[in-house]
Write a structure and sequence with these properties.
- The complex is a heterotrimer of chains A (about 280), B (about 325) and C (about 550).
- Chain A is built from eleven helices and no strands.
- Helix content of chain A is about 75%, strand content about 0%.
- Chain B has twelve helices and two strands, in the order ααααββαααααααα.
- The mean pLDDT of chain B is about 85.
- Chain B is mainly alpha-helical.
- Chain B has two domains: about 90 residues, no CATH class; about 220 residues, MetI-like fold (Orthogonal Bundle).
- Chain C has a domain of about 250 residues: Rossmann fold (3-Layer(aba) Sandwich).
- Chain C contains 20 helices and 20 strands.
- Classes of the chains: A mainly alpha (about 280), B mainly alpha (about 325), C alpha/beta (about 550).
- Chains A and B meet through α4, α5, α9 and α11 of A and α1, α6, α7, α10 and α11 of B.
């Protein structure tokens, strides 16, 4: 663990990303303490510029922008993490089974992921949310449905490669059960790419979520960054900061996660250490 | 000559492989249709209440909605594969016509964005790799990282703020100035001016992607044994980069470009709805608001077919670039 | 007669390694001379710095991480370490050229062979295209590439391994350079191809009076080709001299250890088998692999094993010998049931295990175990080695404590410390890992051991020790052994009987001594005739210095 931190620390951008991500997490965690009420509550006159009475001003209806930002952070991170968890779990199970057993399971999975590579995933997500009607759950489902194939493909490849490795063959020759071979011999050896891919999936999930809620497909009862930008769009000419501020929040959060992901990749992937 | 026949055969075989994918997409559409609240006929007819009862009855009969599930699926498949995508009451036009009308602008937007993303991305990637850890590399890498993390719609809106509202350089929305009735060359210039912001917005994310990929790919290829061989032959570094590394490094870019077509179509929904660009994406956005689910599904189906077609072309291009792919 | 002048004169060369490496210099204070019309072999084990030295000559080191820090490399009096880059480029390819180990990766995969060679000529000589083409075609004929016009338009992946290396040699010789550096040029090739390429290099060198610097790890190759030999150990030349002297009367202890470890091609006398009853019997084994294909195409079928039959008596060692792709590894994996055979029987003590299901197979797993080739791939990098040894017995119901205790004692048996059980694979060297792999197999108390090229990834001195260990445990546990190898020298020393495989079939089998003395099948004859250095018998040393611990 300590050795891992030493490797991670060598990538200064990743440490910066980690700090930034920590800040966002803190904001999301501590938010309800400062803004216990709904982010939709009208607090003051509309269209107040930032750095006045309200730190980030008020929007066209007189809602506090900072409160929206804090609640939006919770939404983004929640959806990003839950959707990724669901997609990653499903992807690891499917990819693992396909890679280990091959045969028809593998054929089925490969055809499915090919299908998913063909259909425009964002449009698919839109259709899914439209069909299921917008809510947190349907957004999570839509994001998970379009993101699991990438993980499945990755895990399948890793499992296939490791399945042929001699130490796995030795375990088979020892008479070890499939479940134990998968869990003890193979899975620990492909955890690093799974972790790295998972972290990048969170970033993508946040981007998809913001796109969906920008188009008006978010949960109407929950504040989110994409929704704030979509709402501010109509007053772009007079109050551009209403769009700019939540967008910056998305940018910084996604950037932070990407940087951490890259740092993890460098630290977990010994092959690249020498570069 | 024989080679051309081989390539045609290869194209034919790849096209055959696409058939199950198209079928699967149709089935997928059918499932979504049945997932939607209300019975399929009302979904097919678009917004509830806007279709005549006669048409509803006809729909039920044509799609066999009173019959068992697999019969329904069969009817649906038959209709879709004949490109009979139904009728949009909101637009009072067949879905197929609507979609085909909007295809042109989307292809123009995507094509421009893809060319910009690939050309600039490759150039920046090469520049960064050649200047490894230098200031140019750092600058390009930071630019790519930030672009890679920025939501498309936000970039679009910010560009409108800067280039249209503040500087008043470029139009904010639409594909051409309809009221001006430009013709010939003037119309081309007008469309080009409208194209600048949406194409830039759409290309930015992919530009970042290709930059990062190209940089990594160049570095990987530069470490290969054949580069040492080339050096041992007495070639100049310039020739090694141009003749040996570049061509090998481009191969993953071509693959990625194929994979990203689908992603770009998704991105165009957002970009088109930000800039009011009259393409498939904007149509999807409008149908979303009109709750015209059948139109949305039609767009989904046809855009998937588009991806299949583009992927075929990319595969062919790849086979031309990489002799290791067996065309026979 | 005047003293001949060296064409290449390396004087006191030192090449620094990065600060985190295990030693300061890859090459330290090295001096070596190469004269026209001679082949100098530089021999050493992996990590001895021989390749670094070769690359330093042409300025091909990954500077600044690995860079020359002292000395001179004189080519006809000109110091290659001091010349400007443009001059160095003019020398590369024209005055000194190089052939690498793996022709598949050393050639650009997306450029035709003709274009890659033409590039060398066009870079250095102002010749019109037609003359360049003529020159290339003539050279292809000279290096005996069939159908030169086709080869010129072929891409690397369309040629066989031997053809690719011939093309590489043609590329290196196209401008007739006075110096050729060959870095393990035959290591990636099969033994019969290796013999042909060695002959080709020798022939071309004689025709053109080239000075060849030949890097290798294989004393057999040295005996085959060298005029002079330099032996490298940890970046230094410990001994050099005429080939006959170094090979037959080595002076330095390290050279003596290396040469002493080279297995002799002559099989030692072996006791007659005690029983006549077969213990492991394979009858009519078939296995085919299908690749590619789908709904629209049939794909390719490779017959890895066709009607393979052999017998082993208890306590006997059978060598399955063949080149890559002969199917010997597939047969091994069928016998241990890692691969399901398509047809045929595998009898152990008269009972057929070829068609048992997973569950029925479990009790048999203990009786037959395997040692693998690659010491780096054969251990789980994320699990302490003791656990890996104990895993097998625990699967079969032994308690954790008992299994771990046994793992420790087995580690001691194979020559490691018992406390090594708690360490991870990356903390061990290649030879140590192979010992751990053997301990893992022994943990199951097997009666039959299948060893798939167990020493071919190891340096020669380590190889000798692992073979010694295998012989020892075989005696001690009365093991019956199926030994897969491509190396006839190893087979001669280890096996009681031999079966020669080619393209999935056994072409000839019988007692080792008989096969080596009177091979009857033409393929066996070719194989034996191709063993490098077959005319040389490594001398035996009374003091038999044991090489540094594995």
């Amino acid at each position: 663990m300590i050795a891992f931190w030493h490797l991670f620390r060598r990538n200064r951008a990743a440490v910066f990303g980690l700090a930034l991500l920590g800040l966002v997490l803190l904001l999301a965690a501590a938010g309800p303490l400062f803004y216990p009420e709904s982010a939709f509550k009208l607090v003051d006159k509309p269209f107040q510029a930032p750095f006045g009475h309200w730190l980030l001003g008020t929007d066209m209806l007189g809602r506090d922008v900072l409160a929206g930002l804090v609640h939006g952070a919770r939404t983004s991170l929640l959806i990003g993490l839950v959707a990724t968890f669901v997609a990653a779990t499903f992807g690891v199970v499917m990819g693992g089974l396909a890679g280990y057993y091959g045969g028809w399971i593998d054929d089925l999975l490969m055809r499915t992921t090919e299908l998913f590579q063909t259909i425009p995933s964002f449009i698919f997500a839109i259709v899914l949310v439209a069909v299921l009607s917008p809510s947190i759950e349907s957004v999570v489902i839509a994001i998970a449905v379009v993101s699991w194939p990438a993980m499945a493909r990755l895990v399948r490849g890793e499992f296939m490669a490791l399945r042929g490795r001699e130490f796995v063959q030795a375990s088979v020759a020892q008479g070890m059960s499939d479940a134990k071979i998968i869990l003890v011999q193979i899975l620990p050896n492909c955890l690093s790419p799974i972790i790295v891919t998972g972290s990048l999936m969170v970033a993508t999930a946040i981007l998809i979520e913001s796109g969906l809620s920008f188009l008006g497909l978010g949960d109407p009862n929950v504040m989110s960054w994409g929704f704030m930008i979509g709402a501010g769009r109509g007053v772009l000419r007079s109050a551009w900061w209403l769009c700019a501020i939540p967008g910056l929040a998305i940018l910084l959060t996604v950037l932070a996660i990407n940087l951490v992901g890259e740092g993890l990749n460098d630290a977990l992937n010994p092959r690249l250490r020498e570069r | 000559m024989a080679l051309a026949v081989q390539r045609l055969r290869y194209l034919g075989r790849r096209a055959l492989q696409a058939v199950p994918i198209i079928l699967a997409i149709v089935v997928c559409n059918f499932v979504l249709l049945n997932l939607a609240p209300g019975d399929a006929a009302s979904v097919l007819a678009g917004e509830a209440g806007s279709a005549t009862p006669e048409y509803m009855a006809e729909l039920r009969q044509r799609f066999g909605l009173d019959q068992p599930f697999h019969v329904q699926l069969f009817h649906y498949l038959r209709n879709m594969l004949a490109f009979d995508l139904g009728y949009s009451f909101r637009h009072s036009r067949p879905v197929l016509d609507l979609v085909l009308d909007r295809l042109g602008p989307t292809l123009l937007l995507m094509g421009t964005a893809a060319v910009v993303a690939i050309v600039v991305g490759v150039l920046l990637g090469v520049l960064a790799a050649l200047n490894l850890n230098g200031w140019r590399d750092t600058l390009i890498s930071i630019f790519a990282l930030v672009s890679y993390a920025t939501p498309l719609f936000w970039i679009g809106l910010m560009m409108i703020v800067v280039f249209s509202i503040q500087l008043d350089l470029l139009p904010t929305s639409g594909m051409e100035s309809v009221a001006a009735f430009y013709e010939g060359w003037e119309r081309v210039v007008d469309i080009a001016r409208h194209l600048v912001l949406p194409a830039t917005t759409l290309s930015l994310f992919y530009l970042a992607l290709y930059t990062r990929l190209m940089r990594a790919s160049m570095l990987e290829q530069a470490g290969m044994d054949y580069v040492v061989t080339a050096r041992a032959k007495g070639l100049t570094e310039r020739r090694i980069v141009v003749r040996h590394i570049l061509r090998n490094a481009l191969l993953p870019i071509v693959t990625m470009a194929g994979v990203q077509v689908a992603g770009m179509l998704g991105g165009s929904v957002i970009v088109e709805s930000v800039f009011g660009w009259p393409g498939l994406g904007l149509l999807a956005f409008e149908s979303l608001f009109a709750r015209d689910l059948n139109l949305l599904l039609g767009i989904f189906f046809l855009s998937s077919c588009l991806v299949v077609a583009v992927n075929l072309l990319v595969d062919l291009l790849y086979a031309l670039l990489d002799p290791r792919i067996e065309v026979r | 007669m005047a003293e001949p002048t060296p064409i290449l004169d390396i004087q006191g060369l030192s090449v620094a390694l990065p600060s985190n490496a295990d030693r300061k210099h890859a090459v330290g204070d090295l001096s070596l001379q190469l004269f026209p019309n001679e082949i100098v072999c530089v021999v050493g084990e992996s990590g001895s710095g021989k390749s670094v030295m070769a690359r330093a000559i042409l300025g091909l080191l990954p500077v600044p991480r690995v860079r020359p820090v002292a000395g001179r490399i004189l080519l006809e009096g000109e110091d290659l370490l001091a010349v400007p880059p443009a001059r160095l480029r003019a020398i590369r390819g024209q005055r000194i050229s190089m052939v690498f180990q793996e022709p598949m990766t050393a050639l650009n995969p997306v450029m035709t062979i003709g274009d890659q060679i033409d590039e060398v000529v066009a870079t250095h000589l102002p010749l019109p295209e037609r003359e360049r083409r003529q020159r290339i075609l003539e050279l292809f004929a000279a290096v005996k590439l069939p159908d030169p016009e086709r080869i010129r338009h072929a891409y690397p992946h369309q040629l066989s391994g031997g053809q690719r290396q011939r093309a590489m040699i043609a590329m290196a010789l196209v401008l007739g350079p006075p110096v050729l550096i060959a870095d393990e040029p035959t290591t990636a090739l099969d033994v019969t191809t290796q013999a042909q390429v060695l002959t080709l290099i020798k022939e071309m060198q004689g025709l053109r009076q080239t000075g060849v610097l030949f890097i290798t790890h294989d004393f057999g190759v040295v005996a085959e080709i060298a005029d002079r030999v330099a032996v490298m150990q940890r970046g230094r030349i410990v001994e050099q001299g005429p080939a006959a002297d170094v090979l037959n009367r080595p002076q330095h202890p390290y050279t003596r250890a290396l040469i002493g470890a080279v297995p002799k091609l002559e099989p030692p006398p072996r006791p007659a088998p005690s029983s006549k009853v077969p213990f492991l019997e394979v009858r009519g084994l078939d296995k085919a692999f299908r690749s590619g294909g789908g709904i629209f195409s049939r794909g390719r079928v490779v017959h890895a094993a066709r009607n393979v039959s052999f017998q082993l008596r208890r306590g006997e060692t059978l060598g399955l010998v063949g080149e890559s792709g002969s199917g010997k590894s597939t047969v091994a994996r069928c016998v241990i049931r890692l691969v399901d055979p398509d047809g045929g029987d595998i009898l152990i003590g008269g009972e057929d295990i070829a068609h048992l299901g997973r569950r029925a197979l479990r009790p048999w797993r203990q009786r037959i175990q395997m040692v693998f080739q690659d010491p780096f791939a054969s251990l789980n990098p994320r699990r302490p080695v003791g656990r890996q040894i104990a895993d097998g017995p625990m699967t079969h119901g032994v308690t954790a404590e008992a299994a771990m205790a046994r793992a420790r004692s087995l580690l001691e048996l194979v020559g490691l410390e018992p406390k090594a059980a708690d360490r991870y694979p990356h903390e061990f060297s290649g030879g140590q890992r192979q010992r751990i792999g053997i301990a893992r197999a022994l943990a199951m108390d097997p009666e039959i051991l299948v060893a798939d090229e167990p020493v071919s990834a190891l340096d020669v001195s380590v190889q000798a020790q692992v073979l010694e260990l295998l012989a020892d445990i075989r005696r001690r546990f009365g093991l019956t052994m199926l030994f897969i190898t491509h190396d006839l020298r190893v087979a001669a020393q280890v096996c009681d009987t031999i079966a020669v495989m080619r393209q999935g079939e056994i072409v000839e089998s019988g007692p080792t001594a008989e096969i080596f003395a009177r091979p009857s099948h033409p393929y066996t004859q070719t194989l034996l005739a191709s063993v490098p250095g077959r005319a040389w018998t490594p001398p035996a040393f009374a003091d038999a210095p044991v090489a540094a611990a594995v």
